[in-house]
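Sanity check

After download, print the first record. It should look like this:
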Amino acid sequence: MSDTNFKRYTVTSALPYANGPLHIGHLAGCYIPSDIYVRYLRSQGRDVAYICGSDEHGVAITIKAAKEGKTPQQVVDHYHEMMKGSFEKFGISFNHYSRTSAHIHHETAQEFFTNLYQKGEFLEQTTAQYYDEEADQFLADRYIEGTCPKCSNEHAYGDQGEKCGTSLSPTDLINPKSK
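Expected structure tokens:
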């Protein structure tokens, strides 16, 4: 039998990529529902920490930086501040809104994954990865576009068929090409 009388609650929401402004889908999808839950817990006198932050590590950021002619750091600095301000204006009640570039985030993430690695929880394997000779770089999933094998959309990403929502691997795409 589990004890549901927790002493503390830690609530978090999906970390938005710092590559653009927030939109109603962000709010309706995860921030308003979790904010309602946090407010409910607080109204019950519960000890709650509502924590979130900008995700500054992702291909979406490097793509945005290239489109805007900026460095990835300039992009994340700009959009982190924009998103943080937007959450404040919407009244989302985070106790702490940070960023994945924060020193404490790096320390905590490294400790978490090192612990799992030392316990043997990871499967290590070698895989093939697409490479663009013109761009002289390996291609992460969002740098690859092709036809979705599920819905035949010709503009599917290497990680997802946007039209049908299917999770994909770049090797699943039909006629994959570098973006």
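If your output differs, re-run the checksum step. Summary of this record's structure: Residues 8-101 form a domain with the Rossmann fold fold (CATH 3.40.50.620).
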